[in-house]
Design goal:
heterodimer, A: GMP Synthetase, Chain A, domain 3, three-stranded mixed sheet, B: mainly alpha, Ferritin, MIP18-like (chain A), FSCA_dom_sf (chain A), Phenylacetate-CoA oxygenase subunit PaaJ (chain A), Zn_ribbon_PaaD (chain A), Phenylacetate-CoA oxygenase subunit PaaI (chain B)
């Protein structure tokens, strides 16, 4: 996007303002899945979109929404391309996106240091994860803010979330897993 | 979905990796409505969804994803026999997840580190598979080091599927991998998990005498035909049907 034209910047902003179909509090820009917009000629545009998870079914709804928005802005031909590299990471979610997730009741992903994607440690023989006290970077409850939370299931309502429970306020909540 | 990728991906390798993901995805999907607890039903469905997404990208590198999934005959599939086995009890499903996700995680990490045609997909999928592997390892520990009943079931499952694990390390044309080293690392990892889970490491042969490495050559076990009939029935009855 180094050489983006004013029109490309405008279209990128429009496409970026499309809400995520599964997490409508977030825009595609805040989710970090919109990679680039290339205008060919005057009314033909290619949009590069990257999936969060390879099998995320939301990407098809995202593509249709982007096409609709850009068509209504005068683009005649809109092609949304799925790009895999570089792979999306939860670090691509903007700080504003993280704040919105928390307000929506979803614990945002912790920022990774770029090392191993998932700590593969053999824990206790129950699904409950290491106790919060032993975790230097615990997942906080999005409702009461407590760091004392436990893992109920590694996979929740969607592949990108884990199900946890707060041991302070007892509320279950989704955690956007680090990827 | 159209994924941008080099058009030169070797078809044999794309089918091998893609069929593994597609077939295991279908087998895991069979748990919908039958898993022991709701959380586990959701977990298995999510793992299946990850695999289906990978299958779509991989099969699209080899041709038309729908034609390849729905219109090929049994002998044209190149998946491992491990992934086509029926789910069995929950312990069998977990044992298969342990064997396969460890293999897939190590293999994708290797492919992601290279610059071949599978590197972009592997770099993405390796992060997803890390969660599948963690899920399988934690359940292996919980069942193996659990009650007498769960230990017995997990033990039987690990033994029963052991004969399908040798096939995973048969070289796949088009993949530049040190398969002997990959096998060693797989054994180290799986054996460490089994020991932690108080389960004996199976000692039997790692291939069946009549079918050594046969899945990659298109020879499959009896349950696969029935699974494929179910997977393909709708599309063959109503070509091009969509939701």
């Amino acid at each position: 996007m180094v050489t983006a034209t004013a029109l490309e910047a405008e279209l990128l902003e429009l496409a970026g303002a499309v809400p995520d179909p599964e997490l409508p509090v977030l825009t595609l820009r805040e989710l970090g899945v919109l990679r680039a917009v290339h205008v060919q000629g005057t009314d033909t545009v290619d949009v590069d979109l990257t999936p969060t998870y390879t099998g995320c079914p939301a990407i098809e709804a995202m593509s249709l929404d982007i096409e609709r928005v850009l068509r209504s802005h005068g683009m005649r031909e809109v092609t949304v391309r799925t790009v895999l590299a570089p792979a999306w990471s939860t670090d691509d979610i903007t700080p504003e996106g993280r704040r919105k997730l928390r307000e929506f009741g979803i614990a945002p992903p912790r920022v990774r240091d770029g090392s191993d994607p998932v700590p593969l440690s053999l824990g206790p023989t129950r699904t409950i994860a290491t106790h919060a006290a032993a975790d230097p970077d615990p997942v906080h409850c999005p409702h009461c803010g407590s760091a004392d939370t436990e893992l109920l299931s590694r996979f929740s309502s969607t592949a990108c979330k884990a199900l946890r429970r707060c041991l302070a306020c007892r509320e279950p909540f989704d955690h956007f897993k680090e990827l | 979905m159209t994924a941008t990728g080099p058009a030169t991906a070797p078809v044999t390798a794309a089918l091998a990796l893609g069929d593994d993901a597609l077939v295991l995805s279908h087998r895991l999907g069979e748990w919908a409505g039958h898993a022991p607890v709701l959380e586990e039903e959701v977990a298995l469905a999510n793992i299946a969804l990850d695999l289906l997404g990978q299958a779509r990208v991989l099969l699209s590198l080899a041709g038309d994803e729908d034609e390849l999934a729905y219109l090929r005959e049994e002998r044209s599939f190149r998946n491992l026999q491990l992934v086509e086995q029926p789910g069995g009890d929950f312990a069998h499903t977990i044992a298969r997840q342990l064997y396969f996700s460890t293999y897939q995680h190590l293999l994708y990490a290797e492919l992601a580190a290279g610059d071949g045609p599978f590197a972009p997909l592997a770099a993405k999928a390796v992060k997803e598979v890390a969660y599948h592997r963690d899920h399988a390892e934690q359940w292996t520990l919980r069942l193996g080091d659990g009650t007498e009943e769960s230990h017995g079931r997990m033990h039987r499952a690990c033994e029963a599927l052991w004969k399908f694990t040798g096939e995973m390390f048969q070289p796949v044309q088009g993949l530049d991998i040190d398969w002997t080293r990959l096998d060693e690392r797989w054994r180290e990892s799986v054996e460490a998990v089994l020991r932690r889970a108080t389960l004996p490491v199976p000692e039997g042969p790692r291939t069946g005498a009549w079918s050594a490495g046969a899945g990659r050559q298109g020879l499959h076990t009896e349950p696969f035909g029935r699974m494929l009939a179910e997977l393909q029935h709708l599309h063959r009855s109503h070509p091009g049907a969509t939701w």
